[in-house]
Structure formats: structure tokens, C-alpha cells
Design brief:
heterodimer; A: 397 residues; alpha+beta; 9-stranded mixed β-sheet; two-stranded antiparallel sheet; 11 strands; B: mainly alpha
């Protein structure tokens, strides 16, 4: 057994303290970096999830907070406008791609323990949701077929009932880290059937709408040569009772909050790193000071200066590697199973990066903790290599 | 002979420590499921409990059983009995781990408390109980070998 390892075993309390410090350092750097990285992935996913540059919704919907909550936070709800608006918009200049969507919230009875958001799309024209669906289900959505978000506890082949309509789960979407994860998608005719059933059962306050004559929102991509601003201004000027909004503006609030959270987490990581580094430096310095006579004796019996420095460095590396492995293991046990809980706490789009990125973050965090410990020990190792053996053994400091 | 006795004493002491850890983790599961990581609240509109509540109750019941077995493993002196009790705790802990969403369905959305907090916490703690029980059984069997 090497001298460094024997030294560590001989002083279990000191070793445990050093290992715990390294665990905290590795855990903080890993968990913090993974959180920031997941928030960034979530924001990127949200930008892609909205899919269109412009969105047109009923004017009264934009005056309610629930509008943004439905689109960005995954709350359930619905709003409708007359279908004629869709025809008017499609004739507006500068429209490239255009598609309508229908929103409906399920009741908590029937299929689900709590309401879920149902979005109806027109498979002929849709360009925002189908690219996501196609990753899991490469066929057109048939009548009474539904695609469920990743956070819904339903699987392919299950049958769910919405307002008395039996629907077959045709596919389950991949995780997006956005409100898509708790949404059910279906085609236009199925959702109209559900809206009709909901009206017949008197379950939602739809007033006197005709399901065949309404849409919830219109998604638009401008034609070439036109900007989103041109389209937004044109629609807001010429079409009444609706509001066109740029999707980028909608997520700017989320983006601002995300940069704030990222900055705070970054500062925390840096503070813990500096604090951990200083404490490790002090711990190694005190430990080496305590052992000056021990090192002087080793010098007398023939250990070279380099050998003493290498022993101190080997102790630091052993502590660093052990602490980092435990810290990263703890981080994985906390951050992966509780990812949904972290998402709920932050109330922001949160998408864990792929396994290779997580492995890269883990390696970087472990390296940061090991290098910090080694750098702190290097100072002590240098001092040990400059020991004046005679002075120490005589007892003069 | 002397060395064998020392080794036996060391193994027995270590197995007692492992049994205490197993009992403590079982207690954490039993208390935690009702306080720190419970299932979802009942529905606000109807006051009805959702299915995850019954998973919580089942885990609580399993936790009480694990606690009793854990305490028994700590107080018994015979390494053979301790190993037997600990070995019995392993399938019990694994069964408790499978209660949320496998034996009893949880809520519809996986971002709800029962999926996001209760299930991972139960899985982690039950996994730790099973691992600690396995270590206790191993150390007790080693101690028994030396005592013979």
C-alpha cells in the first residue's frame, strides 16, 4: 500500500472532511451546470415548439393571463373565434404557410385524474405540431386517433375517453420540456366531435358557439420577401376582434427569466467553487503544517524532496477522485429522477440534455473538483519540498 | 484462534451498523411518504382522492413492515437470524419500490407530485433499503462462517 494511501487511512476524520468538501464541490458544479444546460435546452425546445413566427388569437384571449399560460406553461383552457377570420387572414398579403388549431380542455372525470389540454390540428396544413409527431408516428392521424405528450401516463394502444369519445393512443411524443409534454393532439374532426359532445353534456361554458364554425388560433409563417412584423401589422390593422402576435415576443419573458436564473446559478457555482478551493487550500496547508516533523523524519530516512511533494499530491488526487465520484453519483441520483420536480420548482421549460452531454458535464465537474483539490495541494507540496529538515527536527519554527 | 474472534467481532459490529442503517432507511420511507414526499392532494372540486393516494397508503403499510423487520434485524444477536430477516427484507423492499405506477397507477400527468417527487423518492429509498439489507445479510453470513 502506498504511503499516501496509508496517510489517508491513518487520519480518517481529516480524510472524511476533505472528501466531503470535494463531494460538495463536484455536486454543486455538476448540478448547477446541468440545471443551466437543461433550461437552455428547454428554451430552444420552446422556440421550436411554437413553430410559427406569427400567431393569431381572439383579442379577448390576449387580455387574459391564461392565454400565455396555455401556450407556455401547459395550463388547460380554450378560446375560440369565428372561422371566417381564418379565411380573411389567408387572403392577407405576405402569408406563406398558414394553419388553424383548436383548443379544448378535458374534464377531470372520465379518462384523467386532472384536466389535460387537447389540441386539434388540420393534418393537411399543419406545419407546427406534425414535425414533432412525425418523430414518433409517421402516418396521418386518423379519426379518434390521439398522440399524447411524454409527461402523460398513457401508452401506445391505450384507449382514453374524452367527453364520451373513445380515442386510441397512436403515438407518444418524445420529451420536449415544454407544455407539449402534457398535451393531447388529435385531428380537426375528432376535436370538433369532442367540442360538440362537451356542449351536449353542458360541461364547458362555450356560450352559443357552433363547433363547425370556430377555430382557436391561426399559425402563420410569412412568405418570402415579407417579415413577421409586416404580417402582424397588416392583420392587426385590417382584421377586427383578433390579435396577431410574434411568437418570439411571447417567449421573451421566459427568455429573460431564464437568463436571470442562469446568472444566479452561475454566480452560485462560482462562489461555491472559490469557497471550496479556499477551504481545501486551508485544509491542506494546516494538514501539512501539522505533519512537518513527520515529513522531516521521512527526509532524514532518505525520502527525496520530490517524493514528499508527490506524496502530498497523491493524497490530494485520491481525495479528489473519490470525492468527485461520490459527488457526481449523488448529483445523478438527485438530478435525473427528480428532473420533473426541478422543472416544477423553476416553472420554466426544462429539458435534460442527451446522455453524452450529461456525461460531458459530469466529466467537466469531476475535473474541476479534482483540479481545484490538486491546485490547493500543490501549494502545500511546494512548501514541503522547501522544508529545512534540521530546523524542524530541532523544534525551531 | 484469537484473530478469528477479532474478525468475528468486527463482522458482527459491521453487520449491526448495516442493520441500523437498513432500519433507519425503512423509518425514513415510512415517515417520508406521509410528510416529505406524499402523493397528490385530493381533488379540490370534488374532494375525491386520486389513485396515487392508494399507492401512498400501500407504501406506508410496506414501510411499517420494513421498519419492524429492520428493528428485528438490529436487536437479534444470532447472525443466522439476522441474515434471514435481512434476506427477507430485500424482496419486500423491491415490492414496495414497484408499488407506485406499476402495482398501483399514479396520476395522468407525470409532472404531478406523485410522479415527480413520490415515485423517485420511493424508488431511491427502497433501492437503498434493499442494498443495505443485502450488505447486512452478507456481513451476518460472514460472521456466522467465522463463528462455526
Amino acid at each position: 500500500m502506498s504511503l499516501a494511501f496509508k496517510n489517508l487511512r491513518g487520519k480518517p476524520v481529516r480524510t472524511a472532511v476533505l472528501v466531503i468538501l470535494t463531494v460538495l464541490l463536484a455536486l454543486t458544479v455538476f448540478a448547477g451546470t446541468l440545471t443551466v444546460s437543461s433550461l437552455r435546452s428547454g428554451l430552444g425546445s420552446l422556440e421550436n415548439r411554437l413553430g410559427a413566427e406569427v400567431m393569431v388569437v381572439p383579442y379577448e384571449a390576449t387580455t387574459k393571463k391564461s392565454f400565455e399560460n396555455i401556450l407556455l406553461q401547459g395550463s388547460t383552457g380554450y378560446f375560440y373565434m369565428d372561422k371566417s377570420v381564418y379565411d380573411k387572414i389567408s387572403k392577407t398579403e405576405g402569408i406563406g404557410r398558414i394553419s388553424e388549431q383548436f383548443y379544448l380542455a378535458s374534464t377531470s372525470s372520465g379518462c384523467c385524474s386532472i384536466p389535460v389540454q387537447i389540441i386539434g390540428i388540420d393534418p393537411e396544413t399543419d406545419f407546427t405540431v406534425q414535425p414533432w409527431i412525425k418523430k414518433s408516428f409517421d402516418k396521418p392521424l386518423g379519426d379518434c386517433d390521439i398522440v399524447v405528450g411524454n409527461d402523460l401516463n398513457a401508452f401506445v394502444g391505450d384507449t382514453l375517453q374524452f367527453y364520451g369519445t373513445d380515442c386510441r393512443v397512436a403515438a407518444k411524443l418524445e420529451k420536449t420540456g415544454t407544455s407539449f409534454d402534457t398535451t393531447v393532439f388529435t385531428n380537426e374532426s375528432t376535436i370538433r366531435k369532442m367540442i360538440r359532445a362537451s356542449i351536449d353534456k353542458g360541461l364547458n361554458n362555450f356560450k352559443d358557439i357552433d363547433p363547425e364554425q370556430v377555430v382557436s388560433c391561426v399559425m402563420i409563417d410569412p412568405a418570402e420577401g415579407y417579415t413577421a412584423d409586416d404580417v402582424v401589422n397588416d392583420i392587426n390593422l385590417h382584421i377586427k376582434k383578433v390579435r396577431a402576435v410574434r411568437t418570439k415576443e411571447m417567449i421573451s419573458g421566459v427568455s429573460d427569466s431564464l437568463s436571470g436564473v442562469s446568472r444566479i446559478v452561475g454566480i452560485l457555482i462560482f462562489a461555491v467553487w472559490v469557497l471550496g478551493g479556499v477551504i481545501l487550500l486551508l485544509a491542506f496547508t494546516m494538514s501539512v503544517n501539522e505533519r512537518r516533523k513527520e515529513f522531516a523524519v521521512l527526509r532524514v530516512i532518505g525520502a527525496s524532496r520530490g517524493r514528499l511533494a508527490r506524496t502530498v499530491m497523491a493524497e490530494a488526487l485520491t481525495v479528489g477522485v473519490t470525492g468527485s465520484l461520490i459527488g457526481i453519483g449523488l448529483g445523478l441520483l438527485i438530478m435525473l429522477p427528480f428532473a420533473n420536480a426541478v422543472e416544477g420548482l423553476l416553472s420554466m421549460p426544462y429539458l435534460l440534455p442527451d446522455i453524452w452531454s450529461i456525461a460531458a458535464i459530469a466529466c467537466a465537474a469531476a475535473a474541476a473538483a479534482i483540479v481545484t483539490g490538486a491546485a490547493a495541494a500543490a501549494v502545500s507540496a511546494y512548501r514541503i519540498s522547501r522544508l529545512d529538515t534540521g530546523v524542524i527536527l530541532r523544534g525551531d519554527n | 484462534m484469537m484473530q478469528g474472534k477479532v474478525w468475528y467481532g468486527k463482522m458482527k459490529k459491521l453487520s449491526t451498523i448495516a442493520a441500523v442503517i437498513t432500519a433507519a432507511l425503512s423509518l425514513l420511507l415510512t415517515i417520508g411518504i406521509k410528510t416529505v414526499f406524499p402523493a397528490c392532494e385530493h381533488k379540490t372540486d370534488t374532494g375525491m382522492w386520486m389513485s396515487c393516494h392508494w399507492a401512498e397508503q400501500a407504501v406506508f403499510a410496506a414501510g411499517i413492515g420494513l421498519c419492524c423487520a429492520g428493528v428485528l434485524a438490529v436487536i437479534v444477536r444470532s447472525p443466522r437470524v439476522r441474515a434471514g430477516v435481512s434476506l427477507g427484507m430485500i424482496p419486500a423492499a423491491i415490492s414496495a419500490m414497484l408499488i407506485p405506477n406499476i402495482f398501483i397507477n399514479l396520476c395522468m400527468k407525470t409532472d404531478m407530485q406523485c410522479h415527480s417527487v413520490m415515485r423517485p423518492a420511493v424508488m431511491l429509498i427502497c433501492g437503498a433499503v434493499a442494498a443495505a439489507a443485502a450488505v447486512t445479510a452478507f456481513l451476518s453470513l460472514k460472521a456466522k462462517e467465522r463463528s462455526e
